[in-house]
Amino acid sequence: MSQTTTYLIRGARVLGGEPADILVRDGIIADLGPDLSAEGAEIVEAAGLVALPGLVDIHVHLREPGREDAETVASGSRAAAMGGFTAVCTMANTDPVADTAGVVEQVWRLGREAGYCDVQPIGAVTKGLGGERLAELGAMADSAARVRMFSDDGMCVSDALLMRRALEYVKAFDGVVAQHAQEPRLTEHAQMNEGEVSDRLGLGGWPAVAEEAIIARDCLLAEHVGSRLHICHVSTKGSVQIIRWAKSRGCDVTAEVTPHHLLLTDELAESYDPIYKVNPPLRTAEDVQALREALADGTIDCVATDHAPHPVEAKETEWANAAMGMIGLETALSVVQHAMVDTGLLDWAGVAERMSAIPARIGRLAGHGRPLVIGEPANITLYDTAAERVVDAASMVSKSANTPYRGMRLPGRVAATFLRGIPTVLDGKVQ
Amino acid sequence: MRHLLSAGDLSLDEATLVLDTAKELAQVGGRSVKKLPTLRGRTVVNLFYEDSTRTRISFEAAAKRMSADVINFSAKGSSVSKGESLKDTALTLQAMGADGVVIRHGASGAARRLSNWVDGAVLNAGDGTHEHPTQALLDAYTMRERMGRLDGLRVAIVGDILHSRVARSNVLLLRTLGAHVTLVAPPTLLPVSVAGWPCEVSYDLDEVLPKSDVVMMLRVQAERMNDAFFPSAREYTRRYGLDGDRFAQLPEHAVVMHPGPMIRGMEISAEVADSPRSTIVEQVTNGVSVRMAVLYLLLGGSESGIGN
Amino acid sequence: MHAQKHADDGDESRAVLEGPEIDRALTRIAHEVLERTKGGADVTLLGIPSGGVPLAQRLAERIERVEDRPVPWGSLDITMYRDDLRLAPARALGRTEIPPEGIDGRTIVLVDDVLFSGRTVRAALDALGDLGRPRAVQLATLVDRGHRELPIRADYVGKNLPTSVRESVTVLLKEIDGRDAVLIGPAKPRAGHAGDTTVQSTHAEGDNR
Known about the structure:
A: alpha/beta; nine-stranded mixed sheet; about 20% strand; B: 2 domains
């Protein structure tokens, strides 16, 4: 990729503050301040746009290798750029599973070749996600992909001893285990949040306790062995309370929440349209409120999309037979603006922390989540907070269209994304 | 075109219209020509993804008595068993010009999904653990015939409420019709949010029986004990089975119902099932009349007579 | 009840028959039935809901008074045999009550309030055929307003009432409407249009159209 073009981003409000110009040259922020000289630079008009550090998503499914009909590393990273992301961490539940150095290096390399954002593979905790034997975690850590996060996402590491060992083992290379908290026996035949709606609809219940029990156990385990623990897609009020308690005890736990759990509730299942089927399931309005407050007060550290593309036929079917998951990369920032900023719970500096700086730190992604100051890598997202759009599933950059927001009016639009000084999105279009 | 997807979709007037219509249509079974020309030229597809001979033949008899053309489409040995999706099957039915589709499916919400994909009327003949509205209608019909009224009637529904589409539809419909329902089951076989349902709940059958005009026993699969819903079939029967002794606790006028298929010796003893106060055989007969009424009201006119 | 409303509206409807004339017409029909059926020993009267049913009952009472023996009467709903079912939303059914004597071998006198196109009578003949095999079927109507669309005629007519198709004929009966009268007014929307889904209103439409 050529690095010859110099860009002058004119009049952007850095983290929502006063307008300033940003000079991007040789992949870094070369200058920053009012009324910079435009000489030799291509101008990017950014009056009124908010400048954020390039967003980081530590939880996506890009389906390659194995389900290239739903998404590829190339299509998924384009969707990520479209959403303002400059780095994504891909989950291990591919086919073959990313449980060896070979597979993680393949994904990492595909990401580099695509060039839309940094694609950092997450390694499986157990072989084949089988939950029985540890995968070769060290080999993945030592590979070219330099894996630091490990997760059996989609499956819970439910065996307490295995979880303890994984937490301990990854300390050797500053790793972290990202747990998909789901007690398997309590969620047999689970289809949606267990409660009034599931009882009425006759759909198998996924009780909050199945998530909370695992989170409580793992926080205690992590504390006991002095390890770093990350909790994927927290979805219940009870989970928030447990994480808050664990942090108060000094447990080194971090947690993420998805945009959809910040906005949508289980009542959407009344249509039996599996576009709303996701794991963990959409919960109640009370849970949504608790998650928003937890993200605001730092109990939940960051936002991650759990972007989960599925082909049409996996969703145009009966609820019970449909795949779980929804895409989210291209709508994440809009949903966060709607749920957190427009409600007064977060300012743009807070969004930058939770969608860039903190997730980069959790994932140990060097060069991402850095402040927008002179000398830092030019990973920049320009966002038009005043724009508005009706979500159109067909126009998604992702290969899949399973967005639960289709037809919804959402605020904001990513105007441009820069990855180390190179625009991956300009004028709202993928470059 | 409207559908019958949930018993909860029926207003009091609509539910009463179905029962009154069924009452008139019941006469057809006793005539020399057991057939009405009403649905001549209309096509009704029985789309059965689950084996349920009794429900299928009940709908088939109802449709044929109304002179509809009936196409039976069972999942076994058809394109469905070869992996065809519900949506593709729906498009096939649509292309064949089905005016009504009666669907029995193992997945909750399948009837609702189907209604998005076909123009014809969809009749839910049981979807997973969700609902079975025509069963609730025929149960209400049977109660009204036996007891003369539904308003204020005290109905106990006993058994595996958690997995029962019959219970869900009955709770909704009986409430609309003014009856008082009490669900009786071990706590493991009740939904967690049952306290919010429009009915009473009890764990004690013996306490409920003397205060009941109607007792509806639901089938309980013995295999449920493998998932720890109860310790053993024997213990279930001892605590929740309707045997002769418990039957004697019922008021003189009370009747016993069962949607079938029943497991004699599990939830109901043979002597109770065969008693003159058991309505089990009538329920089957009434099922045809009620389904004729629903088919007529959904398909007989330019638009549905219910659900509008 | 719809008919009552129309009558009370004070619109252009005018009464062409009042209670006493209707009484006389029914009495005459009762005598004609006895005459034509030679004493009426095997006669069963079947009224077509809803207007025909009270008329059948009244005729039965009159014959009984003359002959001093009970005359079987009942009702025959023809909804399921109508040829215009698909032109209107699904309707509630009227009652069908066949007296215990049945219809096999009997002389059935169908009774309706208004004879118009003849389609109702056609449906009634089909319904009868599915119930059994009468020896003969005859037709009595309080009002014959003409405009037949089928080869059907009445055996007993209370009053021939030449009308325009742009007019409506409404029969009010004590048992249903609280008073007896036959009204002529401007045509109302026909069955198949809004507000005509109840049996109560169809009797007033004339010929169950």
